[in-house]
Amino acid sequence: MTRPIRAVIDSSALLRNIERLREKAGARFFWAVVKADAYGHGLIGLLPVFDKAVDGLALLDPSEGVQARKAGWRKPILLIEGVFSEADIQTASEYDFETLIHQERQIEWLERAQLKKPLRVHVKCNTGMNRLGFRPDRIQGVLERLQAIPNVVVADILAHFANAELTYPQDRPVTVEKQLAALQALRAYGNMCLSNTGAILWHPEALDHAVRAGIAMYGVSPDGNITSEALGVEPVMNFESEIMALQDLEVGEAVGYGSKFIAQRPTRLAIVACGYADGYPRKSGKDRKVFVEGRFAPVVGNVSMDMLTIDVTDVPQAGLGSRVVFWGRELSVNEAAASFDTIGYELLCAVAKRVPRVLK
Ligand SMILES: *Cc1c(COP(=O)(O)O)cnc(C)c1O
């Protein structure tokens, strides 16, 4: 008997979500962003779905790209932060990756690389995010330098929005409008790759040629104030486990490390096979809850490494083997994340390696 914890991955929902986003993206080249093992969903198992539905994979670590190639992925792969070392240029060339160029050092590596076949590069422009990239006034010089390197092919100019979400306040120093204005003069140099999920959904004025879709493919809204139903996407990951034990507490009795929960009434607790080593946050949160037997039950006490406790006093059907959902269809990951003052992205990516991904 294995532990009952699992992340059930609904691959047909993934396919429908991508189709929905492609309606918004129109004819633009569609990069599926699959960094962090497809936002925690497990990249390799999902390759057949991506192969059916997207134009290329955008990922972070060259080794993830190598794995995808070895698993049979033939379409384009883009390294969204470029190479991290000079040696990786040869890896990129060997495995036919496209790569981002965001700093001088990467250009020097290319100049020394003596590429034997064409390598497509994307030039990152820093339009106000201020993490990676060249400022707009440097782009022309960078393009000239790249174009002078044998076998380097400049594919487009790439930039990233800091605030593409619909309900983010528009009085921030960096808005989509300002970021687009910074790019305007560069449009003469060629194609643009700008949009993340938020921009695909809410900023058609980006007028780019390629998009990079992430979170909404996985059925999660990039904007915590807008539900996935409103976007017409469905959660792909259902993170769940089962009740493995029950305890009836009398008033004044406590549960777990630190005795954080003390029963104020005769209380039925259920012990669930999931802990912080599985990716459920240990951090205490407000309104932490799970879905069990058709109802929500609060998570109480400190989460342990391998177990957590829920109060099922008001869920009479809860018993040994009852399915417990941490997030997924019945409880959105954004809602779960809000209890911990974080975003759905973080919870998805934090689901531990030891949790089996079960494709359905
Ligand atoms: C993660 C990432 C994306 C995708 O963002 P979503 O909000 O998940 O759509 C796009 N572009 C870059 C450069 C990224 O790092």
UniProtKB/TrEMBL annotation:
Gene Ontology biological-process entries: D-alanine biosynthetic process
Enzyme Commission (EC) number: 5.1.1.1
Entry GO terms, CC: cytosol
Annotated positions of the N6-(pyridoxal phosphate)lysine modification: 35
Annotated catalysed reactions: L-alanine = D-alanine
Pathway annotation from the record: Amino-acid biosynthesis; D-alanine biosynthesis; D-alanine from L-alanine: step 1/1
An MF annotation (GO) of this entry: alanine racemase activity
The keyword Isomerase belongs to this UniProt entry's keyword annotation: yes
Residues that bind substrate: 131, 305
SMART domains: Ala_racemase_C (SM01005)
Active-site residues (renumbered): 35 (proton acceptor), 257 (proton acceptor)
Cofactor(s) the protein needs: pyridoxal 5'-phosphate
Xref: Pfam families: Ala_racemase_C, Ala_racemase_N
Top-rank taxon: Bacteria
Function, as annotated: Catalyzes the interconversion of L-alanine and D-alanine. May also act on other amino acids.
Similarity field: Belongs to the alanine racemase family.
UniProt-recorded name of the protein: Alanine racemase
Source lineage: Bacteria, Pseudomonadati, Pseudomonadota, Betaproteobacteria, Burkholderiales
